[in-house]
Amino acid sequence: MSRIGKKPVAIPSGVKVSVGPDNTITVEGKNGKLTYKASARFKAEVKDNKFSVSRPSDAKQDKATHGLIRSLVHNMIVGVTEGYKKDLEITGVGFKAAVQGKVLNIQLSYTHPINYNIPEGLTIETPKPNIITIKGIDKAKVGEAAAEIRDYYRPEPYKGKGIKYAGEHVRRKAGKAVAGAAGGK
Asked: Which three-class secondary structure state does DSSP give residue 140?
């Protein structure tokens, strides 16, 4: 049985959660408005400032979807109250980023700069040339944008150059010179 799905989501003050007739769940708060269309098989309801979901059967797929719907609504409530934020760090000589209007300009070791169009609903800031901060109310959009930016130059294991998440540990490898000296002739 889904333990996550059975747990009701507390709705904080200042947040309005409503369930439409076609099972569209709408969450409104101080930061904005998010919607999610749940499967018609599941029954979503708001009662006594708590959101709960009930599933139609104990089938494996229904159990998984039950917990998923509850988690998505919880993430929506957190998004409209506090918002989500991801930080990226750029490591490397001459590697830098800057926001120019609705475009993030990233200089890496390529012959040309990379221009990343900032998606609607997200804000990207560069407090320092080697730090990128992504903010938004939709957890999935924030994570997807961070992953797309990181994919332009993933951190490599020898010198550690590239774009990594803040706090991410990059496993380092010994270089060819160190490995050759240890074996020796």
From this structure: helix
pLDDT of residue 1: 44
pLDDT at 125: 95
Q: Which residue has the tokens 């130059």?
A: 153
Q: Considering only CA atoms, which of 7, 25, 123, 121 is closest in space to residue 76?
A: 25
Say which residue the tokens 């240890």 belong to: 182
Q: In what order do the strands lie in the sheet with 114-117?
A: 96-100, 103-107, 114-117
- Ordered DSSP codes for 70-130: HHHHHHHHHHHHT-EEEEEEEESTT-EEEEETTEEEEE-SSSS-EEEEPPTTEEEEEEETT
pLDDT in tens, 22-64: 899 999 999 999 999 999 999 999 999 999 999 999 889 998 9
Amino acid at 55: R
Residues contacting 150, CB < 8 A, separation 6+: 88, 163, 164, 165
* Token output for 140: 């999935």
Give 141-151 pLDDT, tens digit per residue.
Answer: 999 999 999 99
Residue-range domains of the chain with CATH: 3-81 (3.90.930.12), 84-165 (3.90.930.12)
Query: Could you tell me how many residues make up the chain?
Result: 185
> Which residues on adjacent β-strands are paired with residue 17?
27
* Low-confidence residues of the chain: pLDDT under 50: 1
